[in-house]
Amino acid sequence: MDDCPPSLQNLHRLGLAFDFILLSAVWMHVPPTERSRAFRKVITLLKLGGPLAITLRRHGPAAAQQQIYESDCG
């Protein structure tokens, strides 16, 4: 499925709900101003009680054609 946050428009059109969602190497590409919306969209795709896992890139530069943003994991 080709889609991207914050809208996740293609996934939402399918009307599916998932048991588990993994965002691996994704979150740091979402601009901080769009993260609240993206999070809400992801959660609506998750079945009640289903786990959501997010991995964050902590070190190193992005590839030349990619934009990454700081991600504070506390």
List keywords for this structure.
globular, alpha+beta, 74 residues, single chain, 2 helices, two-stranded parallel ribbon
Residues in helix, %: 10-25%
Order of helices and strands: HEHE
Structural class: alpha+beta
Number-wise, the strands total 2
Enumerate the spans where pLDDT stays under 50 for 5 or more consecutive residues.
none
Strand content: 5-15%
Helix run count: 2
Rough outline: globular
Which strand order does the major sheet show?
1-2
Kindly provide the radius of gyration, computed on alpha-carbon positions and rounded to a whole number of angstroms: 13 Å
Mean pLDDT: 86
Summarize the structure.
The chain is built from two helices and two strands, in the order H-E-H-E. It has helices at 9-14, 35-44; strands at residues 21-24, 52-55.
Descriptive overview:
The chain has 74 residues and is of the alpha+beta class. It has one domain (1-74). The protein is 22% helix and 11% strand. It contains two helices and two strands. The protein has helices spanning 9-14, 35-44; strands at residues 21-24, 52-55. The chain has a two-stranded parallel ribbon with strand order 1-2. Strand 1 (21-24), helix 2 (35-44) and strand 2 (52-55) form a beta-alpha-beta unit. The longest helix is centred in the middle third of the chain and has 10 residues, at 35-44. The chain is globular, with a radius of gyration of 13 Å.
